[in-house]
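Onboarding guide, step 5: your first structure request.
Type a short instruction followed by the sequence, for example:

Predict the 3D structure of this protein.
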Amino acid sequence: MAVIMRANIRNVLVLLALCAAAGASWFWNRPGENVPQAVRPSEVPRGYYLRDATLFGTDDDGRVIYEIRAGRAEEKPDTNDLSLERVEVQYRPATDVHWRLSASTGEAPADGSSLVLAGDVELTSGPVDGESTVIRTDRLQLDPQRYVASSEEPISVFVGEGRLDAVGIRAYLKDDRLELESEIHGNFVP
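The system replies with structure tokens like these:
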């Protein structure tokens, strides 16, 4: 009888240990604040990205007037804006605008009304009287439909051997006209 009693006590102790292990396992694995929840596919914002993208801007009649090329274009799902990398903008010859733009990055709102370029921005005109005009700045906003580029940042304008530095510019690309805003300093060699 003593042997049977020891076996029952041992069985009860093993059963209690197993129940304690099962309870501890449940406690550590229950959902709580420390355990990340799985993200449902419907909660993930949808968007897209493109490599070596070319975007076209058109006039009211649907004719292409400019191209925006980007090494990468990515939609921001929350706003539908585009984030661009390695950006180039060029007008079509029919527009009679002889300016090209390039920049490291760009942002384009979903409505296509403007393009904000940043990082090594360069605005270059085709040769006029044998010389090109090059404008460099860190940030520039382009209104492609109105052919106007502007910046409130420090800029440098290079024409041949000459150089003008200023803060702020408004460039009317169709008219080949520049307006420098303030702190204008220049150096031209005759």
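Each response can be followed by summary notes, for example: The chain has one domain: 46-187.
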